[in-house]
Amino acid sequence: MKIYGNEPALERLGQYRRSGKMPHSLLFCGDVGTGKKTLADYTAAMYFCREEDPPCGRCSECRRIYEHIHPDVIYADCGEMSVAELRELLRSSYSMPVEGLMRVYILREFSLANRECQNALLTYLEEPSDRVRFILTASDKNAVLPTILSRTATISTRPLSVEECTEFLKEHGCKEEPRRLAEMFGGNAGLALKAFEDKKGTLYLDCAREYVSAILEYHEYKALAAIQRLPRPKDDKRGPVKDLIIAAGNIIHDAFVTAGGGKASCGCDRELSEKLAEKYSLSVLDAMCEEVRRFSGIVSTVNFNPVLTANAFTAAIFSAAEKELALNMQKSNQKGKIRL
């Protein structure tokens, strides 16, 4: 298994392995699409691989873990489980491993688990068994109980560089504009790959550009129209809004960096970022970036309303832009008074 980026996470895991003190429970925390699932599989392979420098990625243990068919590695999506289902799953940890010396439980998106479910796991973390390991993933660390965090080793994941993400997309079959997708999603390989596989990558790029162009023109109706153009898949109604906020946010971020004298790096349209930097002051762009950060946090939760969130985001961005118009009007009035 090839791991792209996340060098600090890999170094931390390597330190655990070299010390011979792999944690009983680990939590990989980071945005959706930043490699948490991949690192969870990688870590599980570290527990089972018997080669000199685990995980080798070639032995039967590694291959079966990466293919998700190892009998002693159990997966669960916490956002879809009731507390009764989770308790039943955890009770199986008292059983002897099928093949190896331990069983590994990979609990995905644990931040979506309710308080009752999290407390159910806490019992097992407080009295750990030598033959059981827990690997958790979470997109929102703040949604995980402090008592869980205190009993797990937390490792953060992060997006790739644009270059790494471009290489990742090429190796996954994206031959058309992989760099543009990588730039659009700020190096978030998971979201970029999803957009490519959904065949909507170009549409997302166009909608993001249209949205930011509307900000440039101070035309709120056009911004809302860009949102309306987003695809609305039945199985993921929130995803398109999240992707638009990320993509438009990257362009706004680049405008802020450019206005401050830096070099744009993560947006999908450098020319548009430069125009935005010319039109709006650094303070206004900073306010827009703050709204992007705030709403990026909102769309990282599972229960946000996509329509209301998109409208609120647009209102917040144009409220920030309105400060520039007011400032320009004030300057114009002052000039008029001077002439008189």
Structure described in brief:
The chain has helices spanning 7-19, 36-48, 60-66, 83-91, 115-126, 146-149, 162-171, 178-184, 189-197, 201-216, 220-228, 239-259, 270-279, 282-298, 306-339, and strands at residues 25-29, 73-77, 103-108, 132-138, 153-156. The protein is α/β, with parallel strands linked by helices and 340 residues long. The radius of gyration is 23 Å and the shape is elongated.
List the helices and strands and how they pair.
Elements: H1 7-19, E1 25-29, H2 36-48, H3 60-66, E2 73-77, H4 83-91, E3 103-108, H5 115-126, E4 132-138, H6 146-149, E5 153-156, H7 162-171, H8 178-184, H9 189-197, H10 201-216, H11 220-228, H12 239-259, H13 270-279, H14 282-298, H15 306-339
Parallel strand pairs: 1-4, 1-5, 2-3, 3-4
